[in-house]
Amino acid sequence: MSVENIVGQGGEHLVVHGLEWTAKELFTYPNEFIYWSIQIVMYPYMTGLVAGAFVLSSLYHVFGQQDLKTIARFSLVFSLALLPVAMMPLQFHLQQPFRGMNVMFTPHFTSAIAAFGIVFSTYAVIVLSEIWFVYRKFFVDQIEILKGKEGAVDRFKYYLYLLLSLGAFDTSDAAVAKDKKAVKILAGIGIPVACFLHGYAGFIFGSVKANALWMSPLMPVIFIMSAVVSGIALCMLTYIIIMEFKKWSAIIAKGKGDESVQVIAGAELDVITKTSRYLLGFLIAAITLELLDLIFRGYTAMKSWDILRSVMYGKDFIHIFVMQYGIGNLLPFIMLLVPGLSIRRVFFALIFVLFGVFMMRWNVVIGGQAFSLSFAGYMHYHMPIIPHNMETYKEGLFGALTVFATPFALFWVINKVTPSLEYK
Amino acid sequence: MSCSRRDFIKNTFKTTLASTLPLSAFKMLSPAEVKAYTGDSSIRWVFLVDTQKCVGCGLCVKACKKENEIPYDPPITRTWVERYVLMKNGQAHIESPYGGRDGYTETKIRENEIPPEQIAKGFFVPKLCNQCKKPACVQVCPVGATYQTQDGVVLVDRKWCIGCGYCIMACPYGMRFFHPIHKVAEKCTFCYHRIKNGMKTACVQNCPFGARRIGNLKDPNDPVTKVIMTERVSVLKDEYGTKPQVYYIGLDTNVR
Hints:
The complex is a heterodimer. Chain A is mostly helical.
């Protein structure tokens, strides 16, 4: 069928990608739209969470930061739950989602996206094998416990753990010591790979020379720093929620004055206080780099600065200076620094930090498309809220929420197999 | 049959090695490499736009849309014409509604009446893919679905493009867009299906004023090549280092 026929039959159903959510102002080229929308905001955000969660767990495994022992296991398992989700937004965004695998078949290595599959798989292998070494003894113990038990669930669990143990049943001290060594090595390799995975997400943007806002060699480093910030923050937040839940169930079961309640609450605050110091460190690094980038652009004032300035200080002022730097960086920074830290204060500070990193991604991805390549016009993004077709679902609020909710559902499942939340 | 773990690993290693060596005799070609062998290496297609001759009738845009099956009503287009109206006070009015498809017959720009006595100068600038010598769009395609032929034209493989939009982002000229029906990246091809069969591009053929011309840069006797070689021509946005191959006569500093 020729195109004219198709157009003739259903012209009004033609979906021009980007047309629906882009409002243009002054002069833009005819083909310019917000092509990269909310899912491309989600992509570096989710990848960042993966990388950050892994780095947090590695701080314990490699550098022996004992204060992170409790959260290390949890953040490792959580980074596995986040892993498939880093792919999801890309898949949602592709115009030809079924061809996504082509990147693995014919990677075109001059493209920054092409190596994604390889870097990502390498990283997945490292995370999976590290978890295997961490939990191998646990698997063998479970097999011993479940051996000979009747009942379908127990049988299923027995075979599952049998499969997961991969036939390595040796739990002698020498074997366990070897496991620990392997974890250390894997975590050691994992840190640069996690940083690479994310720095490379920054490179995808930083290397687009056509985009005045994106093109900066600082972009990968900025992305890594804010990734670690968001990853640590999400791990802490999830940890708090789960521990609070445990505390409340202990209170309901045993009463408020029970010793176990005090133990949980004490351990929780201890872990959170210590982890928040690392969070602050990375937060300072991230803000410093972002401000350096901003100041440098203003000082050198290249051709693009006029339009960039009008976007940053004018149209996107609220998004950048109020929501990102103000609510997302400055406010939690003060909240975490003021002495006498309480779980509630940390909880809200963490939400602001996560929001701030999200806004940073938003301001990079959407902000980078807020001005025309002609430097003579603007584009505004109106995120589709209520979906009325597949495209407005995928590239709208609900698509983003789907992506955001998935790691928690996955964690719930994975945590049943590799429990990561003992607070002893 | 007994097989110790050591034997298993040993045999796996041997098998891998034994199969890798013969397999390495084959060369992996990316789709871009394979496709790039099309085209005639004795030709380098270039374009020459004489902005002095353009009157903004929009016939080129119309012809292009029909010839290349780009849906007529959506605002996307492979080629377009921009109108520049520069005022005596230095203000610049620029527009290209629907790519200038319907011709510039109105004196209004974006609903604003432009007082003729305050106009310093006005002109039209046709735009199309620059078929760059170093195309950023080809560089960034993650699957090699877009490629440059030997005669210098950048094309898209509609069967292999995954629709990620990276090429659209990478083009400094905003030439690319998603085809609403094929759902893949779409761009001006210099009407490759026509020029390789000895015809002119649709826009060149339909320009009543000869503002658009196509030629072969490798042929010194080509009239277009002669103009490019002997007259003062310029290109758009050379600061991006893509080495664009659409040459312009009479560009203004205000042209974006």
